[in-house]
Amino acid sequence: MVYGTKPALACLAVALLALPWAVPAQTSLGKTATYARNQLHQKFLKADKDKDGFLTREEAEAGNLPETAKHFDKIDATGRGKVSEKEIQTWWLEQAGKRAAKPPAGGT
After folding, report:
1. CA distance 84 to 106
2. Please, are residues 18 and 29 in contact by the beta-carbon 8 Å criterion?
3. What are the tens digits of pLDDT across the range 30-55?
């Protein structure tokens, strides 16, 4: 079954935000976060064509990481023209944190 990129990346961000790195993989949440990290890692490795440990915008676009490409300038806060896997994870965590901090629309 194929899932859309945005829901998968949103799931990744939420899983990474909600889960400290030390939570045992035996828990349901641990399995979800582990799966999400592995998915990002595999996509990152595949997209990193020159194997330098970084993605350019072009590598992200060609490597099935459209959200990384779309938000590339925000993720690449230093303006180097390349991002690491850790920088991508950190950006998604920040976005998930911002969404979690917002009150529900029309809420009380």
Report:
1. 38
2. yes
3. 787 788 788 999 999 999 999 999 99
